Amino acid sequence: MLFRELLRSRGVLFLDTSSRDKHVRAGWLQLQCPFCGTGKWHLGYNESLNYFNCYACGWHSAYDVLRELFPCDDIRLLLSQLGVIRLQRAAAIDKRLVIPEGVGGLLPAHCDYLTSRSIDIEFVLRYGVGGIGHDPVRPYMQWRLFIPVYDVRGNIVTWTTRAVGKSIPAYLSASKEQELVSIKSMLYGEHLVTYYDVVFIVEGVFDAWRIGSQALATFGKSVTVEQKRKIARYAKRIICFDNEPDTQEQAKKLCKELSLFPGTTVNVCLDAPDPADATDNEIKRLRNIFLK
Hints:
The chain has 292 residues and is an alpha+beta fold. Helices cover 28% and strands 18% of the residues. The radius of gyration is 21 Å and the shape is globular.
């Protein structure tokens, strides 16, 4: 079922491009927002991503919007019919998160490695980062940082690890059988920020740790549709990828795609090769420019 069909069947008025209203863009429907009560067509609905955003009061979940529009309906049934809740999610309920054996607190070797990369250990502990020490049974997993990934409710849904020595590969992440949610559907650190804030979008967890609060990592320069949908919820998005030419092309492409959504997107290229290697002064300047 299409959302516009649902609205027509219930007699809910909306605007699309056929209305020739200057505020309506292709791919969007505009409704009167039930939350801010302005009586204007401020609530936008993106037909391709099932995404709601009000020009006046910001992002709203599909569940909350439908509950306001159709208070007597089974909202979960409507979400299923609209494709917001997909059948694959039912199967995910039976999955179990598997944490690697040997995960504990940070050991001196882990702390030394973080310090060598100018990472604030106390700040990293806010993210629940742990350590894996000597493990002769699983040598490929030994001497690594354990990096849990949380959903917005603060639940661990997947994880990755980073070697503190010269182990290859440097990063080892949860397999599909070990995680509840794909790591490429997540934004690392999102459980510590709120919607509508300024956020820095970076590639890796070390980039996020180096920049500090309000930094979200995409686990690589390729950004999935689900990650883009989450990024688009924020009012101001500062894209801060590595300064390699290929990576900057990806950053510019991401900015162009996010420009279709309400809010502002800015691409920033630091002097350092990547945010994780930036100096204290450059990080301070970056935060002063966009967070004040």
